Amino acid sequence: MAAAATSCGPRAGASGCVVAAAGKDSVTSFQRRGPKASGPDGGCRRLASIAGTRPSVRNGQLLVSTGLPALDQLLGGGLAVGTLLLIEEDKYNIYSPLLFKYFLAEGIINGHTLLVASAKEDPAEILQELPAPLLNDNCKKEVDEDVCSHKTPESNIKMKIAWRYQLLPKMEVGPISSSIFGHYYDASKRIPQELIEASKWHGFFLPEKISSTLSVESCSLTHGYRRLLHFIQNIICEEGFDGSNPQKKEKNVLRIGIQNLGSPLWGDDICCTENCNNSQSLTKFLYVLRGLLRTSLSVCIITVPTHLIQNKAVIARVTNLSDTVVGLESFIGSERETNPLYQEYHGLIHIRQIPRLNNLIGDVSDVKDLAFKLRRKLFTIEVWRKDVYSFPNLKFL
């Protein structure tokens, strides 16, 4: 190594200096260059220091939990920071608010900053309805009782299923420790009031933000969308989530939740007619919002009544502007509600799109035929084995 260093004299070429630099850092062309995790300023250590986060095993992207460990598993480990999750609301808007509340409750448990926006409910009232976390060791017994109470006589019959069904992925259904990524929640109980008081959150209630005298501006965004974008941008900049104003304390993650986006309550008419005047308003809002997310330590979940949007082209554009898309299909009011094939479930869940980072298009999940059920305490996701239910008299060896 010393010989290589002395070759960088006046007569030595540029290649000699390169060899000297390589020998000094002990890095060859066959070794990967990257941040040292053991160093005091290692990037991996800084990311891992944020509570309620973990790096992705696939690409190292920082992940947060959705509040539903089974959904985290389906999305590749969780939600990537800087991305947008779109929840397609079910027809009667019964189950989509649960996923919305699980996301917010997970933020409170991990000490993340919340930003709750709604045009229908007061954000303070939404926080009061968040489910209670299952953190104690005794909650395992409660979950077992909840599962046993919903078992039917047919489900107690053990069948020997073909080996290919045994290889299907199993969704997690039990509680875990508070120190592990992701938590389970009891839908029958409310989150303790002291946790809400100790949390930091910002609320955006559209009826309170609309003034009586509105100035007409030449902008394609509705007044509600403009006010919400300014509100989100101010929170990100003022509290240092974009890195421009370093936070005095430890780094934190901003969880943004927007409810019923695209509905007439936000001043949007895409749900009223197919040829609406503001058909580009929602898509432009999502375009700007995703730009804010990409440049900050924030993650966002939105619920959209896609079943009310009459223009299919708008739905396609909204999907393309979202990183992750999850659709909920409820059996209430449909023929499947009385169909014996679906008697154990309350609806189907569709993973329509999962993020493919550093690409222009998203990816499609390999797991299909997913169903959900709401027990007395837990919201669970399971693989619906339709081939087994289609042939109830068929016996597998």
TrEMBL record:
PANTHER family: ELONGATOR COMPLEX PROTEIN 4, PAX6 NEIGHBOR PROTEIN PAXNEB. It is found in: Cytoplasm; Nucleus. It comes from Equus asinus. It comes from the Eukaryota. This is Elongator complex protein 4. The lineage of its organism: Eukaryota, Metazoa, Chordata, Craniata, Vertebrata. The keyword Transcription does not apply. The keyword tRNA processing applies. GO terms for cellular component: cytoplasm; elongator holoenzyme complex; transcription elongation factor complex. GO terms for biological process: tRNA wobble uridine modification. Keywords: Cytoplasm, Nucleus, tRNA processing. Belongs to the ELP4 family. Pfam families: PAXNEB. The gene is ELP4. Component of the elongator complex which is required for multiple tRNA modifications, including mcm5U (5-methoxycarbonylmethyl uridine), mcm5s2U (5-methoxycarbonylmethyl-2-thiouridine), and ncm5U (5-carbamoylmethyl uridine). The elongator complex catalyzes the formation of carboxymethyluridine in the wobble base at position 34 in tRNAs. Component of the elongator complex which consists of ELP1, ELP2, ELP3, ELP4, ELP5 and ELP6.
